[in-house]
UniProtKB/TrEMBL annotation:
Record family assignment: Belongs to the acyl-CoA dehydrogenase family.
Domain Acyl-CoA oxidase/dehydrogenase middle: 133-228
PROSITE patterns: ACYL_COA_DH_2
Presence of the UniProt keyword Flavoprotein in the record: yes
Organism the protein comes from: Pseudonocardia humida
Name of protein: Acyl-CoA dehydrogenase family protein
Cofactor: FAD
Source organism phylogeny: Bacteria, Bacillati, Actinomycetota, Actinomycetes, Pseudonocardiales
Length: 396
């Protein structure tokens, strides 16, 4: 099954995919259309996660694609990006679930784990037999978490028999209520360095509480995590995580994925608005024939096309090994900002119907707010890029 171009891919960037890559994308799109789309709104409304879909995601065999030695060749970042776009195009919540597991959790182990740890966890995570989460953000630390990380790790004992005692709190941890393992980032009290630990859901000393009453990405199960004397063996400390630079290496890889997810979100909103404008009649004719509506549609398409172009270029740079923090930061800042504009214009096309969930656009309008904020706010990513182009840091 080969994926046809989406209506929002106006410049046909997906034509850059190979036949095999388009076949993979087509298989994923079929699953999303048949299995995810029919239940997405219901689970979003009830703020419940569709656990029954996980085996279907596993059968797609796409969780292994960003990584070497997991049952097949490593995929190009272009395909990885289009997969994120495709999932977000159906449901941004499910794209966040998959990105947290596949990007943040698996990425932490891939980049920061020893060879033994990679072999111990990654194959099962690639098969989605183990689901991962990523525990960095804290109640008092979001944008400043690099310098203000409050969760601590204290080494107890020596050698391979040593344990680490974790104390602190995490917040906004996607998948955190049900993940089999959570990568927890904590500051070593002995040398003030940031280290990573794989903490299992049933580990004594770790408790998770679902965050309620969210406006956006309601299907994602964000957790507040309390670590109280949580003991983790030395064998579960990520052996190559020794500073926040190592943490940031994970974020650099996944921040580009947020740009793709934002592009998929705005593309879906644009396509819904375009279809609605062709069907909705006022003053005796479809509103698609009115100049002001066409102006909104073309602006939405322009935002989507520019964001997709930037995402595609970033993917090529990542494959070539020349993408830096500032490239990923600009993509995240730009694409999520254009997404926020685009979903608002799409909602405007729907008029009053745009605030009713049944029409679809309202969910994308709400979900966009979360994508706009996580993985670095617009302002923080702006300062990352500003430092790069001026040579001057404007961080406080």
């Amino acid at each position: 099954m080969t994926a046809d171009a989406l209506a929002g891919d106006f410049f046909r960037f997906a034509d850059d995919l190979t036949d095999d890559e388009r076949a993979t994308l087509g298989t994923v799109r079929h699953f999303l259309h048949e299995q995810v789309a029919p239940v997405a709104l219901d689970h979003w409304t009830r703020a419940e996660f569709p656990h029954h879909l996980v085996p279907g995601f596993a059968e797609l065999d796409i969780a292994r694609l960003p990584y070497d030695d997991l049952g097949g060749p490593k995929a190009r970042r272009l395909l990885i990006g289009f997969l994120a776009l495709e999932i977000a195009h159906t449901d941004p919540s499910m794209n966040s679930f998959f990105g947290i597991h596949n990007g943040l959790a698996m990425g932490s182990i891939d980049l920061c784990g020893s060879d033994e740890q990679r072999e111990r966890w990654l194959p099962a995570m690639a098969r989605m037999e183990l689901i991962g989460a990523f525990g960095l953000t804290e109640p008092h630390g979001g944008s400043d978490v690099a310098r203000g990380l409050e969760t601590t790790a204290r080494r107890d004992g020596s050698g391979d028999d040593a344990e680490w005692v974790l104390e602190g709190d995490k917040r906004w941890i996607g998948n955190g209520t049900f993940a089999d393992l959570v990568v927890i980032w904590a500051r070593d009290v002995a040398d003030d360095s940031v280290k990573g630990f794989v903490v299992h859901q049933d580990n004594p000393g770790m408790t998770t509480t679902k965050m309620e009453n969210k406006l956006a990405l309601r299907t994602v199960q964000n957790a507040e995590i309390a670590l109280r004397g949580c003991r983790v063996p030395e064998s579960d400390r990520l052996q190559r995580a020794n500073s926040f630079k190592d943490t940031n290496a994970v974020l650099r890889r996944t921040r580009g994925g947020v740009a793709w997810g934002a592009t998929g979100t705005m593309m879906a909103a644009y396509e819904l608005a375009l279809d609605y404008a062709k069907r909705r009649e006022q003053f005796g004719r479809p509103i698609a024939g009115f100049q002001l509506v066409q102006d909104l549609l073309v602006r939405m398409l322009g935002n989507t096309t520019a964001s997709l172009a930037m995402s595609v270029r970033l993917a090529h740079m990542q494959d070539a090994g020349v993408a830096d923090d500032d490239h990923a930061a600009l993509a995240k800042e730009y694409c999520t900002s254009r997404m926020r504009e685009t979903v608002a214009m799409a909602r405007e096309v729907f008029g009053g119907n745009g605030v009713i969930l049944d029409y679809g656009v309202a969910k994308f309008f709400a979900d966009a707010e979360a994508l706009y904020s996580f993985e670095g706010t617009r302002q923080i990513n702006t300062l990352v890029v500003g430092r790069s182009i001026t040579g001057h840091s404007a961080f406080v």
